[in-house]
Structures are given as structure tokens and as C-alpha cells.
UniProtKB/TrEMBL annotation:
PROSITE patterns: VOC. The keyword Lyase applies. One of its GO terms (molecular function) is lyase activity. This is Putative lactoylglutathione lyase. It comes from Saccharothrix ecbatanensis. The keyword Disulfide bond does not apply. Keywords: Lyase.
Amino acid sequence: MSVKIFVNMPVRDLAKSIEFFAALGFKHNPAFTDDNASCVVFGDSVYAMLLTEPFFQSSLTDKEIADTGKSAEMILALSLENRERVDELADKALAAGGQFVKEPQDHGFMYGRSFYDLDGHLWELFWMDEAAAQG
């Protein structure tokens, strides 16, 4: 079975959010991009749909959009190929306007850094030595 994930995220300013993720090196799929949305491609099977808040609210849910300044809605974690890539992307996120969360977490077999994006969504970038974690 082939499974893909499309995480739908409300954003206040679509153009700024597109610029933010482009600054981290992620591409946007133009086939799924218009005035209301943009598709960020993280990998072959992982995507984020950045949706303007009015579009998110009118098309996907009747619930109020979470205030990320007051509550955590989720943590979006991306597994990367090595520690250096974790640091590279975290530094790019902070330079592009992302917000610092906490100091890097180093557990030997696993290393991670976190940031808030422009809309307060919490992202975790991590590397893990799966063989060491199991043994």
C-alpha cells in the first residue's frame, strides 16, 4: 500500500509562508498552488498544504482555528539524514523569521532542534541512528 500525507495548515499570509519554506529549500507544487493555497513538498510522500485562514475555515472545518500563541495544536516532525542537516535547516528557519523554541536536544542516538514557523506551528527537525536506538 502506498500512503502519502498532506498536512493542511492555516496560515495568515500565504505569500510570506511560501517564502519561509522556500528559504528552507523546500519546493512548492504549482499544480496545487493558487491564491488560497500552496503545496510544500517535503519528500516523495510528505506534503503540507498551506491554506489561507479563511479558506481553511470555510472549506475544511467549522471549528475555530487554534491560537498557536496560546496552545499547541500539534508538533510536525521531520526526520533528516544527519545532524548537520538538522542544524542547517533549523538555522535557515530562524534566519527566515522562525522563532526559537529551546536548545538542541542531544540523546546520542538522536539529535533534534525545534522552531515555530511564521504562524506559530511547532516543527521538530531530528536525526536518529535507528540501529543504536534499537540496540
